Amino acid sequence: MIEDTIAAISTPLGEGGIGIVRVSGPFAIEAVKKIFLPHTEKDLATVRSYTLHYGKIIDPIDETLVDEVLVSVMRAPKSYTGEDVVEVNCHGGVVAVEKVLELILKEGVRLAEPGEFTKRAFLNGRIDLSQAEAVIDIIRAKTEAGLKIAGRQLSGEVREKINTVRQKIINILAHIEVSIDYPEYEFDEISPETASKNLDEIILDIEKLLSSYERGRIFKEGITAVIAGKPNVGKSSLLNALLRKKRAIVTDIPGTTRDVIEDYLNLKGIPVKIVDTAGIRETEDLVEKLGVEKTREYLNQADVTLFVVDVSLGLDENDKKILGLINKEKSLLVLNKIDLVSKGLNIEEYLQKTGIKRFVPFSAKKLTGLETLEDQLYELLIPEQEGISENALISNLRHKNYLEKALHSLYAAKKLVLSGESVDIVAIDLNEALKDLGAITGDTLGEEIINEIFAQFCVGK
Predict the structure, then answer these.
(1) Taking the CA atoms of the chain, what radius of gyration do you get in angstroms?
(2) What is the pLDDT of residues 308-351, one digit of tens each?
(3) What is the total count of domains within the chain?
(4) Residues in CB range of 218: below 8 A, 6 or more apart
(5) 17 is known to lie in a ligand binding site
(6) Does residue 77 have a cis peptide bond before it, meaning omega lies within 30 degrees of 0?
(7) In the listed set 50, 78, 112, which residue is the last one of a domain according to the structure?
(8) Full domain range(s) for residue 168
(9) Per-residue pLDDT, 397
(10) Which InterPro entries does the annotation name (predicted)?
(11) According to the annotation, is 126 in a ligand binding site?
(12) 232 assigned to a ligand binding site
């Protein structure tokens, strides 16, 4: 049982409309009551839950006014943490909010550790570990799509799916344990055929969850798209077109971009870090050389490459050198400057020479083909075009790792079943799978790892 009371500032420090100090624990109401002077005669200890009260925070030592505030009271167990929670809504700023926190701490309250409010919600059984991790994802969401996935996880979808799979394993284990513990009684044992069929069903459930990871990860974390090409092919113009603003300097002078330029765009719900790089070519200019080296580094890290060529000039040796540095399967060929081509464009020739399958005719000057380019880039990332469908649920690497471990144990169990091994040997692998799935929801995870997960949170959450 948690006996101490914690407090922290739950809003970013700085000037703003409001600043919130959150207090949680058995003495939360009593602690705030000692420094709160309500506008009307009322006792925080007796007010109804989910009510808001106007008044002043007073320093008990010299009875000076600290701030006019609104105090909200949420009683256990129906609060964020499952404990009594009080939130003091101050005027936004640094000094007033910190002063209110200081006065609360003087009443025997402890400063909360990072993520401790959410950790208490987990420890008090209000949420499971996958839901707690979804809180971080909501805070860090870069797009509405990422927010939607995190919201589904917070609502308990991951927990429900994991618990359904765990129950299926438990059902198999129950038959095995009965036959082991009570051999003198006649029970209907599961035949190898039935056990194998049941395991196949469980394996399929886990594989479906795992198949959603890459899509979920992309919507959650985003990708890095690197614009590459030789000098003066229109890379910076392409960056400006995608961002809908003049982010990079554009001139007719080759080598204008000598350093990496980064910015972000929202591509149909996918957070994309778009990187404009220095054109790769042989040069004696020291600064340009450094830029080219940095370009090579970014190409090694790129999730997607937008390989830009100037169709008014065609391909040359510099283009071929760049092709040797990129992953053609994760590249989009941007055939730029089509406005300068008077005759028909031989697209098939470019596809053969570059080895890149996806392409888009484009004019950075006239913005011809911009929407097509964005569609092609999206389809390169999400080939099935399922977006954030029901499958896009697993986005946490920790969850993926434990699902893979569970899957490995289930495959081992099935192999033992088919080879005719005794049921007690099969039970070892099934229990291991059960343990790994329980680690996702926090049911079977050690305290040290749980503490490490919540340490990723900010103080006050």
Answers:
(1) 30
(2) 999 888 888 888 888 888 889 999 999 999 988 877 788 898 89
(3) 3
(4) 270, 381, 382
(5) no
(6) yes
(7) 112
(8) 132-212+394-454
(9) 93
(10) G_TrmE, GTP-bd, GTP-bd_TrmE_N, GTPase_MnmE, MnmE_dom2, MnmE_helical, P-loop_NTPase, Small_GTP-bd
(11) yes
(12) yes
Task: For the sheet with 358-361, list strands across it.
Answer: 261-267, 270-276, 223-228, 304-310, 331-336, 358-361
Which residues make Cβ contacts (< 8 Å) with residue 55, sequence separation at least 6?
36, 37, 38, 39, 68, 69, 71
List, in sequence order, the alpha helices (H) in 212-346.
213-221, 235-243, 286-301, 317-323
20 neighbors 11 (Cβ within 8 angstroms): yes
Residue 29 covered by a domain: yes
258 belongs to an annotated ligand binding site: no
Structure tokens belonging to residue 98: 């910190």
Q: Is the dihedral of CA 452, 458, 460, 461 positive or negative?
A: negative
Q: What is the pLDDT of residues 40-57, one digit of tens each?
A: 888 999 999 999 999 999
Tokens 């949170």 locate to 457
Please check whether residue 353 lies inside any domain of the structure: yes
In eight-state DSSP terms, residue 247 is -
Q: Letter for the amino acid at 8?
A: A
Is 404 marked within a binding site?
Answer: no
Is 146 among the annotated ligand-binding positions? Answer: no
Confirm or deny that 276 is annotated as ligand binding: yes
Q: Is 234 annotated as a binding residue?
A: yes
Residue 304: beta bridge partners? 225
For 180, 425, 426, 428, the CA distances from 418, given in Å and listed in that order, are 19, 12, 10, 15
Residues 30 and 63 grouped into a single domain: yes
Please state, as a whole number, how many other Cβ atoms lie within 10 Å of the Cβ of residue 370. 17
Looking at residue 189, what is its pLDDT? Answer: 61
| pLDDT at res. 181 | 55
257 in a labelled binding site: yes
Last residue of a domain, one of 355, 381, 407: 381
Q: Are residues 205 and 225 in the same domain?
A: no
Under 8 Å CB-to-CB from 389, ≥6 apart: which residues?
A: none
- Please tell me the pTM assigned to this model: 0.81
pLDDT beneath 70, residues of the chain: 1, 178-190, 247-259, 278-293, 383-392
Assess whether 203 and 230 both reside in one domain: no
Specify whether 376 is located in the same domain as 421: no
95 is annotated as contributing to ligand binding = no
Residues 102 and 155 in one domain: no
Say if residue 236 carries a ligand binding annotation. yes
